[in-house]
Amino acid sequence: MDDAAVLKRRGYIMGINLGEGSYAKVKSAYSERLKFNVAVKIIDRKKAPTDFLEKFLPREIEILAMLNHRSIIKTYEIFETSDGKVYIVMELGVQGDLLEFIKTRGALQEDDARKKFHQLSSAVKYCHDLDVVHRDLKCENLLLDKDFNIKLSDFGFSKRCLRDDSGRLTLSKTFCGSAAYAAPEVLQGIPYQPKVYDIWSLGVILYIMVCGSMPYDDSNIKKMLRIQKEHRVNFPRSKHLTGECKDLIYRMLQPDVTRRLHIDEILSHCWVQPKARGLSSAAINKEGESSRAAEPPWASEPSSDKKSTTKLEPREEAQPEPRAEPSPEEEAAMVQVSQQSEAVGLPGEQPSKTEEGAPPQPSETQA
């Protein structure tokens, strides 16, 4: 029985193809019971790799069944047929994904970015409070409903965190996700704290929201990793971002995992909280990681009105101090994550030089 016939028997009228991979595809369908359109993810067990069938698919199904949050794509039904096909019926993101939205319309204004980022952060907090980690947070996995609200989707790399005898979360060793959104510890092949990994990805997403470009150029993973480990974040001057917004991004893109923000700290940050906005940069310096710096620790690139927000070309960066070459293990992990990454469709934005006093202070540099 073909997919259309299977879905028809379950009360769904199959529509157009929304996406297709080697062993899974996503179709739109009209639900006769719900009276609106849905998305149906169809997985063919006969074509799927063993690792996916034994590890990732069971995790995804278990987690989807337990999630219920207004900013997470709803799962209406999961069923399987005798010929080995799994059907996951989900809420449809009728306005597409955030990446396409930004590529079409350019960077978001801070007020719009704040609303969407708060929705996303609330969804991530909900997951983290359940000890669920996403591990593949990226703009392509943020769908938009009819009112352009964020809906977190695709829990294919998600898992429930385990705890040791003392109650502490155990480290993860599976290196998954897209290189452009991956934290330095993942790129290096270091066992990582998955909740802290999610925070780095949130920082990349917020940067893309307000800048319309990638914070790092992932065409050279080794070079990108070196810049990340130096805690260098460069913002386009043309976007006129507030100090509070830059501060939040800078503190999420913190290479030192012991100093990276937690999800509760993100939600309580002055940029995210409407009542707390308008604090002076001095107040940020007092509370933030740049307390010993005379200038903010991030860099701004030279303004260029001739560049399109989504067609910016990567530019040569300031030369960092010499760094030790990565070990063979780190090289292997970089290649692995790079191979798993997908084309993100937005260019990196690396300035030709940084502002005077803009690089992080020695105490901020992560070797």
What does this structure look like?
This protein has 367 residues and is α+β, with helices and mostly antiparallel strands. The chain folds into two domains: 3-91, Phosphorylase Kinase, domain 1, CATH 3.30.200.20; 98-364, Transferase(Phosphotransferase) domain 1 (Transferase(Phosphotransferase), domain 1), CATH 1.10.510.10. It contains eleven helices and eleven strands. It has helices at 3-9, 50-66, 98-105, 110-129, 184-187, 194-211, 221-229, 243-252, 263-267, 281-287, 328-340; strands spanning 12-20, 24-31, 36-44, 75-80, 85-91, 132-133, 142-144, 150-152, 159-160, 234-236, 299-301. Helix 4 packs antiparallel against helix 6 (194-211) and helix 6 (194-211) packs antiparallel against helix 8 (243-252). The radius of gyration is 21 Å and the shape is globular.
From the structure above, extract its key features:
367 residues; alpha+beta; Phosphorylase Kinase, domain 1; Transferase(Phosphotransferase), domain 1; 2 domains; five-stranded antiparallel β-sheet; 11 helices; 32% helix; magnesium; metal-binding; ATP binding; Protein_kinase_ATP_BS; phosphoprotein
